[in-house]
Each structure stands twice: as C-alpha cells, then as structure tokens.
Amino acid sequence: MIKRLTTAAALSLLMAGSALAASQADFDKAYSAAEAARKAAAQMKNEWRDTGKLLKKAQEAAKTGDFDKAIKLAKAAEFQGRMAVQQAKANANAGNPQYLYD
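-> structure tokens emitted (102 positions)
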C-alpha cells in the first residue's frame, strides 16, 4: 500500500513538473545561448544562413507569449551555431582539391 502511494506521489510530481509552461526567463536563457553560438560562428566567418532567421522568429514568438515555440526556435539556432563552429574547425586546413592546380 505504501509503495503504491509513493509511486503515485512520485508520478504526480513528475507530471506536475512537465505541465509547467516556459517563461520569459527560460526564453532569455535559451536565446542568449543561441546568440553566443551564432556570434562564435560569425567570428569564424562561418555563420549559417538560417541561424539569424531562427533567432528573429524566436523573438517574434516570445513577443506573442509563445515561449515554448520561442525556446524551440532558439535551441535550433543554437544547434546551428554550434554545428557551424564545428564545421569551420573541421574545414580549417582542408585546402582546395588537387585538380584545381593541375
């Protein structure tokens, strides 16, 4: 009986935590991480085309109060920024193919 109550209590706490909506503070945190990743990519001269567009859409969604959507867009922009940095590092010394010199 106690085990069932403990399991039910834990389950209800878990479900209550997932029902909380995202807030402005959550968005601000996600947005600043995305902006930092975008700036790092831009500093390496490898910012991807859609990163800025995603950040703009995230700001628009936040202005309307749709923080869940805004955070999703900001996280997508952060991912693009991090991947752009990784791509720039991987291609740093790639050079041109040999057939260009033949």
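The helical segments are 2-18, 24-43, 51-63, 67-90.
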